[in-house]
Amino acid sequence: MQTRSPVQGEATPEEQARAWRAALPRGCRHRTNLRGGAIYALSASLYVLTFLGTFLLPEWWQQLGALLTQPWIIGALFIIGHDACHGSLVRTGWLNRVLGRACFLPAWHPYASWAHAHNTLHHGWTNFKGREPAFPPFSKEEFDRLPLWRRLLERVHRTPLGIGLYYTLDFYFKRLIFPRGTQRPPLRLIFQLDRLLVLGFLALQGLAAWWLASERPASVLPPVVYAILAVILPWLLWIWFMGFVSFIQHTHPRMAWYDREDEWSFYHVQLKSTAHVVFPWPVGHILHNIMEHPAHHLDPTIPLYELPRSQKQLEQSCPEHAVVIPWTVRDYFRTCAACKLYDFRRHCWTDFAGVPTTPTGLPGLPRFDPAVRREETPEPAPAST
């Protein structure tokens, strides 16, 4: 009997994902202390320079430019820390942990709780309702049982601007800063120390901002107000962007969610429910290639500087299952409009009234093709009031 090749077109997503991972050249997993350390040093230096520039540059527009650059640098540092948290930034284990904690400080994220929520839950149970912590959708029945205030909040969360609020309230504070029960990381003492480390960094950052603001020439804003704004605004912009990136990586009218283990498969969802979102240049480079996300999910040991060629090989090996989405503002707004609630039985997205906004049977749909998305995916129904 002839055995079906896992790289032929009739292979399932799981078969092709396993074959790709098994065939990945060893060089794609190669990481060095020198290269990883240099990437961290460059981004950390840029963060310090933009923070100082917010206070010390001579013109107000230069200070504003430094302030608005900080969220991007915080994001770049966070992605480097994300790599270190997976143990894939440098070769040395303890150095990964040190650099990971240092990278997370400007984002005010405790390392231990992020490792539990992201590495264990998000990577272990991608798009599985009840275990995946990032942007799990309600079903219509679950939504109807919520109190009025929570239904209203969910309507805000599922908007283009509200996703940042969701990440802040439901993920950052609930799962990283004040986790409860099974959401708490197993190493409680280390988690407490990591929270204190973040608190200590925030206190030093605030004191440095106040001192630098006091040394500035007289301005319209008092030093304390200027210092608070200089610390809070970059973080608020960064955390909204973090929510935005987390949302679009696993939420799209072509991507399924699951609530039954007999339907869910680890390797299947890494291909069919994880997107390679292609941003205009140079956004992808600024984000250290994290949008080459399927390759990262299929093998988190690939360092960020090896993701582009790994993702390219993945898409060549699994063309009928790879999800590649050229990002546009229009497509993002369509995604937010369509992906309100999820019908786990029919496998389709719905609006808040339960009316389907996408085709049913999402796990079995062919690969996403942006050239035909308007023909294959109906326009979302108007949101109910």
Keywords, separated by commas or semicolons:
mainly alpha; 56% helix; 16 helices; 3% strand; globular; two-stranded antiparallel sheet; two-stranded parallel sheet; 385 residues
User: How many structural domains does the protein architecture include?
Assistant: 2
**Could you estimate the helical fraction of the residues in percent?**
55-70%
Kindly report how far apart the N and C termini lie: 58 Å
Q: Radius of gyration, Cα only, in angstroms?
A: 22 Å
Order of helices and strands: HHHHHHHHHHHEHHHEHEEH
Tell me the number of strands. 4
Q: What summary fits the major beta sheet? A: 2 strands, parallel
The computed structural class is mainly alpha
What does this structure look like?
The chain is mostly helical and 385 residues long. It has 2 domains: 1-30 and 270-385, no CATH class; 32-251, no CATH class. It is 56% helix and 3% strand. It contains 16 helices and 4 strands. It has helices at 13-23, 33-56, 60-85, 93-104, 111-122, 140-145, 148-157, 162-177, 188-215, 223-250, 266-272, 283-286, 293-298, 307-317, 329-338, 373-376, and strands at residues 276-278, 324-326, 341-343, 348-350. The strands form 2 sheets. It has a two-stranded parallel sheet with strand order 1-2. A two-stranded antiparallel sheet has the order 3-4. Helix 3 (60-85) crosses helix 10, helix 8 (162-177) crosses helix 10 and helix 9 packs across helix 10. 41% of the residues are buried.
